Amino acid sequence: MQTWKLSTDPEFVGKVRDVVGLYLDPPENALVLCVDEKSQMQAIDRTAPILPVMPTTPARMTHDYVRNGTTSLFAALDVATGTVISQHHRRHRHQEFLKFLKTIDNNTPADLDLHLICDNYATHKTPAVKKWLLRHPRFHVHFTPTSASWLNLVERFFAELTNRKLRRSAHRSVAALEADVRAWINDWNNDPTPFVWTKTTDEILESIANYCQRINDSAH
Fold first, then answer.
1. Global pTM?
2. Residue 52: what pLDDT?
Protein backbone atom coordinates (compact mmCIF):
# COMPACT_ATOMS: atom_id res chain seq x y z
CA MET A 1 0.00 0.00 0.00
CA GLN A 2 1.35 3.42 -0.96
CA THR A 3 -0.10 6.84 -0.19
CA TRP A 4 -0.12 9.89 -2.41
CA LYS A 5 -1.35 13.47 -2.42
CA LEU A 6 -1.88 15.80 -5.37
CA SER A 7 -1.07 19.47 -4.95
CA THR A 8 -3.96 21.89 -5.39
CA ASP A 9 -1.66 24.91 -5.62
CA PRO A 10 -3.05 27.22 -8.36
CA GLU A 11 0.56 28.14 -9.26
CA PHE A 12 1.69 24.50 -9.37
CA VAL A 13 2.99 24.47 -12.95
CA GLY A 14 4.90 27.73 -12.62
CA LYS A 15 6.52 26.70 -9.34
CA VAL A 16 7.55 23.31 -10.71
CA ARG A 17 9.14 24.97 -13.74
CA ASP A 18 10.96 27.42 -11.48
CA VAL A 19 12.40 24.79 -9.12
CA VAL A 20 13.23 22.19 -11.77
CA GLY A 21 14.88 24.93 -13.82
CA LEU A 22 17.24 25.62 -10.91
CA TYR A 23 18.12 21.92 -10.73
CA LEU A 24 18.69 21.32 -14.43
CA ASP A 25 20.10 24.71 -15.44
CA PRO A 26 21.48 26.45 -12.32
CA PRO A 27 22.42 30.13 -12.66
CA GLU A 28 26.06 31.16 -12.94
CA ASN A 29 27.91 32.74 -10.00
CA ALA A 30 25.31 31.37 -7.60
CA LEU A 31 24.59 28.52 -5.22
CA VAL A 32 21.32 26.60 -5.26
CA LEU A 33 20.43 25.54 -1.72
CA CYS A 34 17.51 23.31 -0.73
CA VAL A 35 16.38 24.49 2.70
CA ASP A 36 13.99 22.89 5.19
CA GLU A 37 13.58 21.83 8.80
CA LYS A 38 13.36 18.30 10.12
CA SER A 39 11.20 19.17 13.09
CA GLN A 40 10.37 17.24 16.26
CA MET A 41 13.34 14.88 16.08
CA GLN A 42 12.93 12.74 19.19
CA ALA A 43 15.73 11.73 21.54
CA ILE A 44 14.62 8.13 22.12
CA ASP A 45 16.35 5.69 24.45
CA ARG A 46 15.51 1.99 24.34
CA THR A 47 14.62 0.30 27.62
CA ALA A 48 17.46 -2.18 27.08
CA PRO A 49 20.77 -1.92 25.18
CA ILE A 50 20.64 -2.48 21.40
CA LEU A 51 22.15 -5.84 20.43
CA PRO A 52 24.54 -5.41 17.47
CA VAL A 53 24.46 -7.30 14.17
CA MET A 54 25.96 -10.79 14.38
CA PRO A 55 26.58 -13.42 11.69
CA THR A 56 23.12 -14.66 10.53
CA THR A 57 21.46 -12.49 13.22
CA PRO A 58 20.04 -8.97 12.66
CA ALA A 59 20.54 -6.13 15.11
CA ARG A 60 17.89 -6.24 17.83
CA MET A 61 16.30 -3.51 19.93
CA THR A 62 13.41 -3.41 22.35
CA HIS A 63 10.00 -2.41 21.06
CA ASP A 64 9.40 -0.01 23.95
CA TYR A 65 11.37 3.18 24.53
CA VAL A 66 11.63 6.35 26.61
CA ARG A 67 11.20 9.82 25.09
CA ASN A 68 13.80 12.34 26.23
CA GLY A 69 12.74 15.49 24.37
CA THR A 70 12.84 16.87 20.84
CA THR A 71 14.95 19.11 18.63
CA SER A 72 14.61 20.55 15.11
CA LEU A 73 17.33 20.30 12.49
CA PHE A 74 17.59 23.21 10.05
CA ALA A 75 19.47 22.17 6.90
CA ALA A 76 20.57 23.70 3.59
CA LEU A 77 21.70 21.21 0.94
CA ASP A 78 24.05 22.53 -1.76
CA VAL A 79 22.61 20.93 -4.90
CA ALA A 80 25.91 21.05 -6.80
CA THR A 81 28.17 19.44 -4.19
CA GLY A 82 25.85 17.65 -1.75
CA THR A 83 27.36 19.43 1.25
CA VAL A 84 25.01 20.52 4.03
CA ILE A 85 24.89 23.58 6.28
CA SER A 86 23.02 22.66 9.45
CA GLN A 87 21.93 24.02 12.79
CA HIS A 88 19.87 22.69 15.70
CA HIS A 89 17.18 24.64 17.51
CA ARG A 90 14.87 23.50 20.31
CA ARG A 91 12.04 25.61 18.87
CA HIS A 92 10.72 26.00 15.35
CA ARG A 93 9.64 29.60 14.78
CA HIS A 94 10.53 32.40 12.38
CA GLN A 95 13.14 33.60 14.90
CA GLU A 96 15.01 30.31 14.51
CA PHE A 97 14.64 30.44 10.72
CA LEU A 98 16.17 33.93 10.73
CA LYS A 99 19.11 32.65 12.75
CA PHE A 100 19.60 29.91 10.20
CA LEU A 101 19.48 32.38 7.30
CA LYS A 102 22.28 34.30 9.01
CA THR A 103 24.22 31.05 9.39
CA ILE A 104 23.84 30.39 5.66
CA ASP A 105 24.96 33.96 4.95
CA ASN A 106 28.09 33.50 7.08
CA ASN A 107 29.00 30.10 5.64
CA THR A 108 28.80 30.81 1.92
CA PRO A 109 31.09 32.94 -0.33
CA ALA A 110 29.94 36.55 -0.10
CA ASP A 111 30.33 37.14 -3.85
CA LEU A 112 27.77 34.48 -4.84
CA ASP A 113 24.01 34.83 -5.16
CA LEU A 114 22.01 32.31 -3.14
CA HIS A 115 18.89 30.67 -4.55
CA LEU A 116 16.97 29.00 -1.72
CA ILE A 117 14.31 26.37 -2.44
CA CYS A 118 11.83 26.31 0.45
CA ASP A 119 8.36 24.98 1.22
CA ASN A 120 5.35 27.10 2.17
CA TYR A 121 5.70 26.79 5.94
CA ALA A 122 4.45 29.99 7.60
CA THR A 123 7.76 30.73 9.34
CA HIS A 124 9.39 31.19 5.92
CA LYS A 125 7.05 34.06 5.01
CA THR A 126 6.67 36.25 8.10
CA PRO A 127 7.13 40.04 7.81
CA ALA A 128 10.38 39.79 9.77
CA VAL A 129 11.79 37.23 7.35
CA LYS A 130 10.68 39.25 4.30
CA LYS A 131 12.29 42.38 5.78
CA TRP A 132 15.57 40.53 6.38
CA LEU A 133 15.58 39.19 2.82
CA LEU A 134 15.08 42.69 1.42
CA ARG A 135 18.21 43.80 3.30
CA HIS A 136 20.16 40.85 1.84
CA PRO A 137 19.52 41.01 -1.91
CA ARG A 138 21.81 38.11 -2.75
CA PHE A 139 19.14 35.79 -1.28
CA HIS A 140 16.47 34.66 -3.75
CA VAL A 141 13.71 32.42 -2.34
CA HIS A 142 11.83 29.96 -4.56
CA PHE A 143 8.81 28.21 -3.05
CA THR A 144 7.76 24.68 -3.95
CA PRO A 145 4.04 24.10 -4.57
CA THR A 146 1.92 23.22 -1.55
CA SER A 147 1.84 19.48 -0.77
CA ALA A 148 4.90 18.89 -2.97
CA SER A 149 7.76 18.18 -0.57
CA TRP A 150 9.08 15.62 -3.10
CA LEU A 151 10.29 18.60 -5.15
CA ASN A 152 12.79 19.69 -2.47
CA LEU A 153 16.01 17.64 -2.65
CA VAL A 154 16.85 18.24 1.01
CA GLU A 155 14.09 15.72 1.79
CA ARG A 156 16.34 13.06 0.23
CA PHE A 157 19.07 14.06 2.64
CA PHE A 158 16.63 13.82 5.56
CA ALA A 159 15.69 10.33 4.38
CA GLU A 160 19.36 9.31 4.42
CA LEU A 161 19.75 10.72 7.92
CA THR A 162 16.69 8.83 9.13
CA ASN A 163 17.50 5.50 7.51
CA ARG A 164 21.23 5.43 8.12
CA LYS A 165 21.39 7.10 11.52
CA LEU A 166 18.27 7.90 13.50
CA ARG A 167 16.53 4.53 13.20
CA ARG A 168 19.65 2.77 14.43
CA SER A 169 20.39 5.03 17.39
CA ALA A 170 19.38 5.59 20.99
CA HIS A 171 19.90 8.84 22.92
CA ARG A 172 19.45 9.62 26.59
CA SER A 173 19.14 13.38 26.05
CA VAL A 174 18.44 15.97 23.38
CA ALA A 175 22.04 17.19 23.65
CA ALA A 176 23.29 13.66 22.90
CA LEU A 177 20.99 13.43 19.87
CA GLU A 178 22.17 16.79 18.54
CA ALA A 179 25.84 15.88 19.01
CA ASP A 180 25.30 12.55 17.26
CA VAL A 181 23.54 14.18 14.29
CA ARG A 182 26.24 16.87 14.02
CA ALA A 183 28.92 14.17 13.91
CA TRP A 184 27.01 12.27 11.21
CA ILE A 185 26.60 15.42 9.10
CA ASN A 186 30.31 16.23 9.51
CA ASP A 187 31.13 12.76 8.18
CA TRP A 188 28.68 13.31 5.32
CA ASN A 189 30.35 16.62 4.41
CA ASN A 190 33.78 14.98 4.37
CA ASP A 191 32.58 12.83 1.44
CA PRO A 192 29.32 14.39 0.23
CA THR A 193 26.98 12.79 -2.28
CA PRO A 194 24.94 15.15 -4.47
CA PHE A 195 21.45 14.05 -5.44
CA VAL A 196 21.08 14.46 -9.20
CA TRP A 197 17.68 15.60 -10.48
CA THR A 198 16.84 14.07 -13.87
CA LYS A 199 13.13 14.67 -14.60
CA THR A 200 12.19 17.66 -16.74
CA THR A 201 9.11 19.73 -15.97
CA ASP A 202 7.28 18.33 -18.99
CA GLU A 203 8.01 14.76 -17.89
CA ILE A 204 6.71 15.51 -14.40
CA LEU A 205 3.52 17.12 -15.68
CA GLU A 206 2.92 14.27 -18.13
CA SER A 207 3.36 11.70 -15.36
CA ILE A 208 0.88 13.54 -13.12
CA ALA A 209 -1.61 13.87 -15.99
CA ASN A 210 -1.41 10.13 -16.71
CA TYR A 211 -1.88 9.34 -13.03
CA CYS A 212 -4.94 11.59 -12.80
CA GLN A 213 -6.36 9.87 -15.89
CA ARG A 214 -5.96 6.46 -14.25
CA ILE A 215 -7.71 7.76 -11.14
CA ASN A 216 -10.61 9.06 -13.22
CA ASP A 217 -10.86 5.81 -15.16
CA SER A 218 -10.94 3.71 -11.98
CA ALA A 219 -13.85 5.77 -10.62
CA HIS A 220 -16.14 4.68 -13.47
1. 0.87
2. 67
